[in-house]
Design a protein that fits this description.
Blueprint: H1 2-11, E1 20-25, H2 32-43, E2 48-52, H3 61-64, H4 79-90, E3 95-101, E4 106-113, E5 118-123, H5 130-133, E6 138-142, H6 146-160, H7 165-183, E7 192-197, E8 211-216, E9 241-247, E10 253-259, H8 265-277, H9 299-316
Parallel strand pairs: 1-5, 1-6, 2-5, 6-7
Antiparallel strand pairs: 3-4, 7-8, 8-10, 9-10
């Protein structure tokens, strides 16, 4: 046996480069895919690997119809295989990932996933276990108001996945206990909590993009925005983009970066250039940031995505 181990060691080319790992967790239709798509485009598909952990569903749609739980329940997913694959990806190793087709509701042929410089993992349960969380350099939780998320889910599932609005509403009610038990608790483990929502007490024209609030927890190093983003309170003059000290869900103080839906493009550009300059980059920030599913640009989404790009590139340094 020793001689066999020696041959294996000699054949091993050495450990591959370790990628930078980012997790984006949140409930169904919270906006995870939209943000991930923008990050991949900004970083370049040749440098970025995107993985959806919803592919680790244990049962197809027909099989789930007779089960006492939904896809939000860990028992409905191969959590241990997901953990194993995340560990391998974090070490720069390829995995043979299962594939779940959301359009047909069936599990299809697995695909080989090879980690590139950046690996973005999004889905329902990427932060569910301690072992999974240990694989990431930065973690994000998307926390839109429940009423808005439900509107997004009804619109997406009726337009893209063939459901009726009544069926989507019924499934939302069925999922609610498991959402509270397994999805929302992941918020506590995120370095950044992102919330797209109308700003309370601020009148904006109809059709204006949703504002963004980013809770920047001190669990990772955030870019220094002193002197660039003004301190202020929501709704005050000149505070379309501002940072303030807020209270987190556990009452601990946390920095809250606000980008209002009516923020002017020139104000957004100042903040983007400031964040980008912290990386020592010679060129300007990626122009593709902030695009919605409809192809429109919003300043809150652009700054949100740029902040995540910053963390990926900063970790790579």
């Amino acid at each position: 046996m020793p001689h066999k181990l020696f041959r294996i060691q000699r054949a091993d080319p050495g450990p591959p480069a370790r990628p930078v790992m980012l997790a984006i967790a949140g409930d169904s239709a919270a906006g995870k895919t939209t943000i991930t798509r923008g990050l991949v485009e900004a970083l370049g598909a040749d440098r970025c690997t995107a993985v959806c952990v919803d592919d680790y569903h244990r049962y197809d749609r027909a099989e789930r119809s007779g089960l006492p739980f939904t896809v939000l329940h860990p028992a409905c997913n191969y959590v241990q295989i997901m953990e194993q694959h995340l560990q391998l990806l974090a070490m720069g190793q390829p995995v043979l990932k299962p594939v779940y087709d959301h359009h047909t509701g069936q599990v299809t042929r697995p695909v080989l996933v090879e980690p590139r410089q950046f690996v973005i993992v999004e889905g329902l349960l990427p932060l569910h276990t301690k072992l999974a969380r240990a694989c990431f350099d930065a973690t994000v939780y998307l926390d839109p108001p429940e009423a808005i998320r439900r509107e997004w889910k009804i619109r997406r599932d009726t337009c893209e996945r063939g459901y009726t609005a009544e069926a989507v509403r019924a499934e939302l009610e069925r999922r609610e206990p498991e959402s509270a038990a397994f999805i929302r608790p992941q918020r506590a483990f995120a370095d950044i909590v992102i919330r797209f929502a109308p700003l309370p007490g601020r009148a904006v024209p109809e059709g204006m993009p949703l504002s963004a609030e980013l809770l920047l927890r001190p669990t990772i190093r955030h870019p220094d925005l002193d002197g660039v983003v003004p301190e202020g309170t929501a709704g005050g003059p000149g505070t379309a983009i501002h940072v303030r000290l807020a209270r987190d869900a556990d009452s601990r103080p946390v920095d809250a970066l606000h980008v209002h839906g009516d923020a002017a493009r020139e104000d957004s550009e100042v903040v983007e250039k400031a964040i980008w300059s912290r990386l020592g980059a010679r060129s300007g920030p990626p122009a593709c940031l902030g695009r919605t599913r409809e192809g429109q640009r919003t300043e809150p989404l652009a700054i949100t995505q740029l902040l995540l790009v910053y963390h990926l590139l900063d970790a790579a340094r």
